[in-house]
Structure formats: structure tokens, C-alpha cells
Amino acid sequence: MIGRLFKFHGGVKPDAHKDESAGAAIRKAPLPARLIVPLRQSARAGATCIVEVGQRVLKGERIGEAEGFLGTAVHAPTSGTVSAIAAHPMAHPSGLDTPCVEIEADGEDRWIERAPFDYHAASREQALAWLRDCGIVGLGGATFPSHVKLGRGTGIETLILNGAECEPWITCDDRLMRERAAEILAGATILRELIGARELMIGVEDNKPEAIAAMKEAAAASAHGVSIVPVPALYPAGGEKQLIRVLTGIEIPYGKLGADYGVQCFNVGTAHAVYRAIAHGEPLVSRVVTLTGNCATPGNWEVALGTPVEDLLALAHPKADTDRYLMGGPMMGFAMPRLDVPVVKGTNCIISASPGLFPPAPPEQPCIRCTECAKACPVELQPFELYWFSRAKNFGKAQEYNLFDCIECGACTYVCPSHIPLVDYFRFSKSEIWARERDKTAADQARERFEFRNFRQEREKAEKAAKLAAKAAETRARLAETGATETPAAEPAAAEDPKKALIAAALARAKAQKAEVRPQNTDNLSPETQAEIADIEARRKVLEAAAVDTAPQPADAAIAAAEPRP
Amino acid sequence: MFTAILVMSGIAVVLGLTLGYAAIRFKVEGDPLVEKIDAILPQTQCGQCGFPGCKPYAEAIANGEAEINQCPPGGEEGIRKLADLLGREFKPLSEEHGVEKPKSVAVIDEQVCIGCTLCIQACPVDAIVGAAKQMHTVVEPLCTGCELCVAPCPVDCIAMVAVGETVQTWKWKYPVVEIRKAA
Q1: Contact: B167, A98; criterion CB under 8 Å
Q2: Residue A236, preceding bond cis, omega within 30 degrees?
Q3: With contacts defined as CB-CB under 8 Å, which chain B residues touch A438?
């Protein structure tokens, strides 16, 4: 079906170290007593918690609702009780906390009711929503949501399944292909239908002959027109753009995606998860993790998401001289800052590292401009240039040299004769540029809001002034109408000074109002009380008259004396 | 001689007209320098520089009425950028205008808030929501951390809380070159 394979630029050939764990069949890891499920499975997207502390959950029950465009749902990996919803360290180079749901396992591992999803009967949107709600993300390590990748379902000619697994040590996809080839193919068929692709290719590195044989056998049995293509083992052949290049010859430029060129790429593990979600209604609650490196019993384990890494490591029996643990491969993975972090959807491998196996890098020496890194770079960058700019924190220039094309594969660091941690510099530059962009956006927003606030205050002031002016004009007009009768003749100047006229009018109004107001609390009284009041009033009048006659006596005192009540 | 004068004055008139037309046709609205300075300033609108907002401070700098080291939220990096832009000497942050602090946001203790709206009126970016005799709250992503709402609060229920690093905002550190391993 495919005539020839293509080559991508550069690449390196590190020792594969696949044999350590490739022989061990996938086994189910024992369930820990307590699982910690991060609502944020990757730094990119989070989920909204929809369970409460104390709630009973079943295996596969949704505990987090997809949040935002790149969000996917998160599920309970086993049945049990939610014991806490709290911040917990995450499997991330920073070791920072993220909100997690802690589940006390009840040991029953009881599933929710599962029903296959008939994607033929449902619309595309419904099928994609189903995948989102099943929490399906790319299991190659980047955990990009699959429903987003499936896109609009038009314009994709070729679907590629990525079984290259080019990083040394990792064997989880290898084992999956050997053991569950039929399920992977079924998942691939579903993906192909959803994306509307004509062609389906599965690229597997040629250092995995058993996996290729198993996949070929399954492909022959299913007769779906699938081509299993062995690709030369060359790191990073499993990079998305590199694999597309090798299989189709299409070179995807910066800022474009495979989908723009009619090619889309999924990991074999993702295809397997899609199959489980569609054909069995099972959300993504476990994944295959390779435990390897400096340990007594390397192997591949099907691990419930949320299992703490330290519990998992006990299965591999790391040797005594292990000094750190890497999550992911040795090229792109990171040393875990702590071991109480849970396994997440992106955890494909945990390597126990010892100084013997991974000797500490010799001290960094000056760049000798040998351009070995440029020769190794699979995206045809010039890492030495990027290094100088990153080192000098000249980020604008680094971007000009296409820093963001860098896939951080580590090939340049691997070949550097001066042992410069090039990728560390690139990661530093990238995150610094992102942080600056965030600050810039925030500053622009603040400026806009500040300017709008000033505008609003000005407008309110103007509106208030206009309102007052209108009112004044109205009063003036009324005055002009009734002016002759109301304006006292004694103030002829008022006609000339409108302000004075207004004041005079207001005063007159107030006076009239005051005159109108009479005490109302004497209205609804019994006739006797009315009579009493009238009596008192009469006496007061007499007394007042008397007070006027005999001037020095204060009226108040007289009234007080005359009052019958205290 | 007369022809020469005529020719020269002719050229002068033509050039003058051209320049005059160009001045009207290609007139630059506003002061581009102010915009450039304003783009460097952090837009906290805190007024610590002594001007009512970042834009007025930018104008003052452009007119030479203010020093470039009066913006504590911009910090040393901001001063360096301003110095670069304006070709002035770098100066350390002036102490009378405040000290550089980590970015923080205002948080209202909602148990204590009496709903007086004073903080709402003080906020330069309208980041506080609430109404008279209703509890107020700060919209965190909009808060610039200017601290202008702290002083007006009659019950002292507003605290400035430093923004911690999250997984999303975490940055890779500058690689440290180990010259010699500690023995």
C-alpha cells in the first residue's frame, strides 16, 4: 500500500533499553487503599468537581465535569467513598499542588452501569461529546483531548496510529500492541469513521517485531484495509510531525497541524481507550504504565489512575542505589520532585534512575559551535543559536529563530559534546515568554478597564450636569409662565438673576409645603378626646393672650402649668 | 542673478508647500513616546508614582517631569526597560515611592464586610463587585494588586494576598551551571 518511507532531518539513536521490560506481559496492578485523582490531569486543562466529601462513587463514575474547550471529564478509578477534595501535589516537574479528589477504595471495584455507545446511530457531535465525557485524551504523554483532535470530521484523508514508541525504556505501547492488537484496530476503525479518513496507517518502530507481527495478524483478521508500517528506529520517530513525515512525506510547517494537510495522528493507547469507551462504555480510568530502570522486576502494569507512584514502585522493587525517579522517558521525561504524586493519564513510564544507569551529566562547558545539535535537530532548528539567545535572555531573538518549533525532544542535549542542557534553556525561555505574554494581556486588560472607568466617570458627571440643567430649565420655564403672580413685587432683581429666581421659587415652594402640613394625629380620635383637645386649645389661647398682655411671663411655662397631663 | 534668486525662492516655496502638506497629511495623533512608555508600565493604576494612573505617569516621563524610577510594581526590570527606551541612566527604585513586592491581589473578608461601597469607588479597574449594604467581593483575575481599596475600608476587611505559583503559571528556572560539585 505504501511505496516508500521518507526521512526526517536529524534524529539520534540512543540505546533502546526495551528488553528490560518488553518481555513482561501487562498485569493488573493491585488497587491501593487510597486513590488521589487530580481534577487537573495536565497543566493545560482542568475539570469541575461534581462530587462531595462522603459521597459513594462507583468505578467509572464521573467526578469531574469537562471544563473549557480543552477539558475532558475525570472519573473515579474504583468504587469507594470520597474522603477528601483537597490540594495535592501533582505529577509535574514543579511538584505544585492541584485540586484532587481522594477516594477511599472499598475493594469491590464495582463498575457503574456500562452500555456500548452506538456511534453509527448518534451524530458526530454526540460521539465526540461521549468521548469527552469518557475522559479520552491522547495517551502518548501529551494528553491532548481526543475529541478536539477529531475536529470537524472533514478534510482528513489519512489517519495515522502512532505505535512508534521511540523513547528508550518505554514499552507500554509495545505490550499493548502485542496483547490487545484487535482492540487497538477496532478503536482505530472507530476513529477513522469519526474523522472520515480513507486511509489508515499504523506506524511501528522496527525494533518491535513482535508488536508488528501481532498487529499484522489482527489486521489480516479484520480486513479493514489497514497498513502496518514498520518505521526505522530513530529517535524521535514517534513525534507526531516526524511520524507523519516518515509515513506520508508531508512536512508540516510551523503553526500548522497535521489536520491542515489531511493527516491526523493518534497514539495506539488512545485508540484502545476509544474502543473501550465506545464498545464497552468504559471511561478512561486506567492505563498501562511501564516500570523499569534500576529495579529488580521491571514490567508493564495496568494501573488505576490516581494510584500513588510510591505504591506502584513497590511492584518493581527498585534497587538500593536508585537516587531518583523519572516520569516519562529519559529524553523528555522529568525527575519527579516527590513520590506521593498520583499516576495521571499522561504517565506512560516510571524509570528508577541510578548514577550507574544514568550517570550525572558532566559540568556544562562553553559552546564550541560544532553544530552537532543542528545536525541532530528533527525540526531543523539551530539549537546553538537558540541557546545563546536563551542564555542571554534575549527572548525576542529566540522567537525569531523559531524557539516555539522546538518539540523538546532532547536530541540536541544528547549529542552536545559540551554537555550543555540545551532543552532546559529552551524550556526556560518558553515559559518566560509565556509568562510575559500573560502579564502583557493582564496589563492590556487593566489599561482598558481603567480607561473605561475614567470614561464612565466622565460620562456620569456629564449626565448629572445635563439632568440638573434640564431640571433648572424646566423650573425656569414654569416660573416664566406664572412669574407675574408668584414672584413677589418686592424683588424685581430676581427677574434678571435666574438663579435668585430659582431660589426664591424653591423657598416659596417649601413655605407652601410647610403650611400645608398639619398635625394629623388628632384626626381619628374618640369624640371625648377631641373635646378634651379643643378644651386645651381654648385654654392655651386664653393663656397666650394673657402672656402677650403680661409680657415677662414665658408662654411655654404658662402652657406647661395649664396642661392637665405631665 | 535675478533668475538665480527666483529659482531658489521657487524651490523654497515648493518644498515648503510639500512639507506643510506632509505635516497635515501624515500628522501623528497623540505622542507615540507616551504610548511606548505606557506599554512598559505595569498598568496597576496604583498611583504610587504620584500620578493618577499609569498613563499620566507616562506623560510626565515623556515631558521630563518625572523620573523613571517611581514605579514600584514595575520593579527593577521596568526601570531598565524605560532606561533603554529613553536612553537614560538606570536608577534604583526611589524609596519614597515604595518597594517592589510580589504580585498580590486584594481579598475581602466577606464575614466582616459591611457593604459600604467605598472600595468599589476606589478600585481603578472596576474589579470589585457589590452594592450598598450587600457583601462585596474582588474579581481576582481583574485585580491588579494596587492596594487602593485597602485604605478606604472602614472595617479593615481587605487583605492583600500574594498570588502563589500554580501549575499553569509555573516557570522553568534558568539552568544553573554547577562549576564544581559540592564535596
Answers
A1: yes
A2: yes
A3: 169
- Which of A245, A276, A7, A238 lies closest to A142, judged by CA? A238
For the CA atoms of A212, A218, A223, A225, the dihedral, rounded to the nearest 10 degrees, stands at: -30
Pure H helices in A180-318? 181-195, 209-222, 240-248, 268-279, 309-313
Give the three-class secondary structure for A501.
helix
Contact predicate A459/A481, CB 8 Å = no
* Amino acid at the residue A3: G
Q: Are A76 and A56 in contact (CB under 8 A)?
A: no
Determine the distance in angstroms separating the CA of B157 from the nearest CA of chain A, rounded to an integer.
24
- Report the half-sphere exposure of A310 (CA within 13 A, side-chain side): 8
Q: What percent of chain A has pLDDT over 70?
A: 92
**Is the Cβ pair B172, A452 closer than 8 Å?**
no
> A535 with A494, same domain?
no
pLDDT in tens, B86-129: 988 888 888 888 888 888 999 999 899 999 999 999 999 999 99
B64 and B110 in a single domain? The answer is no
- Residue A521 included in any domain: no
What pLDDT score does A522 carry? 67
B54-62 vs A422-486: helix axis angle to the nearest 10? 100
Same domain? A154 vs A46: yes
Q: Which three-class secondary structure state does DSSP give residue A421?
A: coil
Instruction: Specify burial of residue A351 (Cβ count, 10 A radius: 0-12, 13-18, 19+).
Output: buried
Complex ipTM tops 0.85? no
What are the DSSP E strand ranges found in A236-363?
Answer: 263-267, 286-293, 299-304, 324-327, 334-335, 349-353
Which residue is it, cell 494528553? A143
Coil/strand/helix, residue A505: helix
> In angstroms, rounded to a whole number, what is the distance separating the alpha carbons of residues A542 and B14?
103
Closest listed residue to residue A203, CA positions, set A425, A417, A5: A5
pTM comes to 0.80
Mark whether A329 and A444 lie in a shared domain. no
Specify which residues A57 forms β-bridges with.
Answer: A80
**B-chain residues near A460 (CB < 8 A):** none
Q: Is A342 found in the same domain as A393?
A: no
Task: Indicate the helix (H) or strand (E) that contains B82.
Answer: helix B75-86
Q: Is B137 on the interface with A (CB under 8 A)?
A: no
Rounded distance, CA A16 to CA A182, Å?
26
- CATH number, domain with residue B149: 3.30.70.20
- Predicted pLDDT at A562: 47
Strand, coil or helix: B17: helix
What mean pLDDT do residues B138-148 have?
A: 91
Residue A520: all three cell numbers together: 394629623
The reply to whether residue B125 touches residue A453, judged by beta carbons under 8 angstroms, is: yes
Verify that B127 and B84 share a domain, yes or no: no
Q: Which of A94, A391, A459 to mutate to test the interface with B (most CBs of B within 10 A)?
A: A94
Q: Tell me: the pLDDT tens digits for A416-430?
A: 999 999 999 999 999
User: Could you say which DSSP state residue B169 is in?
Assistant: T
pLDDT of residue B165: 84
Residue A335 DSSP one-character state: E
Give the Cα separation of A543 and B174 in Å (integer): 98
Alpha-helix residue ranges (DSSP H) falling in A367-421: 372-376, 383-391, 395-400, 411-415
Residues in chain B: 183
Q: How large is the C-alpha radius of gyration of chain A?
A: 40
Q: How far apart are CA A305 and CA A296, in angstroms?
A: 24
